[in-house]
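User: I'm curious whether this sequence folds into something compact or stays loose and floppy. Could you predict its structure so I can see for myself?
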Amino acid sequence: MSPLRKRAYLELLVVAIIWGCASPVIKYTLGGFSPAIFLTYRFFISTVIAVIIFFFVKVKIPKNPKTMGIILINGFLLSTVSLGLLFLGTDKTTSIESNLISTMSPIIIAVAGVFFLRERITKRESLGILIALGGTLITIIEPILKFNQGFTGLTGNLLVLASVIVSAATAILAKIALRDEADALFATNVSFIVGFLTLIPFTLRQILNADFQVLTSVPIGYHLGVFYMAILSGTLAYFLWHKAEKTIEVGEVNLVAYLYPVFGAPLSLLWLKEKIETPFIIGGIIIIIGVALAQWKKRSYVISA
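Assistant: Here's the prediction. I'll summarize afterward.
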């Protein structure tokens, strides 16, 4: 294995730790801020950091209008749409379920690659994807199966799944932009600026009115949660993710999603005191079986859409 690939895998391990812990951090911080205010606050911090970076660090700005357009569209989907859906969903479900549903990202990207990029998958991978999707369905409808959160939890899980689907689209767009020699640092920080600019028109009135008092009076722990999401889960993690994506295949980059529950579930159990119910365990086991089957061995039988 080349030194570049080893460094890319190490970068992805750091991303897995940060993003695995992000779900419980989001769930906790939503106790102090509404999803809209949380996101705007987060993107404001990230935008300030981006401006500082652009001022002191020389970044490569794409000269190709098409590449710049892809970066801007990707930034909007990655920040405003994907994270907006994730925050809204996490607010209505548990961080453990959010983490488990997020592990479907590589599977969804594989399916998207078949239909939109004409990539190929094996029969074994196809079977594994179907099994994993079945496990995800059980996880999504778990709130109804356990007669607890009902349709509120179901809505939250569906929003998280929608966020994962949008993230899969951004992974493909980012790979295209980075393949065109776009700078990873530039692409990362532009997405946060786009997120802030597209959200502020909808939240400015809330911030200036009653929610401004909330913003200044909530305990420091909630503010620390926002800074974690802005600096570590935002600027640092996305930069490392984009950087790794320039070195290795997009499919391998997104395998990092399988590690999210490894770091996030213990934090959710110990810190947030969340509980693991039987439907969740069944859905999780089925997902693991499907993922293992899909990723088990090198491709031998090939099918395509």
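Summary: Residues 3-108+148-272 form one domain. The CA atoms of residues 235 and 280 lie 32 Å apart.
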